[in-house]
Write a structure and sequence with these properties.
alpha+beta, two-stranded antiparallel sheet, 2 strands
């Protein structure tokens, strides 16, 4: 639980959580922009079939989590393709 170290802005050092969040938000906003979706070319129709909707339910998640072996390391699921 080390958190974010104090940050500097305009020569001042801030350790308050709200100020650090504001500084990081300002940096993020200055580095990234909103895309102009009017200039994105159309790729046409896909040659691949449409994937059906995925349904994730509480019971299914509970069943999968309760079957995890806590003594084993995390890794790729055996049903996953590589």
């Amino acid at each position: 639980t080390s958190g974010v170290s104090p940050l500097k802005r305009n020569g001042l050092t801030f350790s308050d959580s709200k100020m650090k969040a504001d500084i990081l938000n300002y940096q993020y906003c200055s580095a990234f922009t909103t895309e102009d979706t009017g200039n994105i070319p159309s790729l046409g129709s896909s040659p691949h079939p449409t994937m059906p909707d995925i349904s994730i339910g509480e019971n299914g998640v509970f069943k999968l989590l309760s079957n995890l072996n806590l003594r084993k390391a995390a890794g790729q699921h055996p049903m996953s393709s590589t």
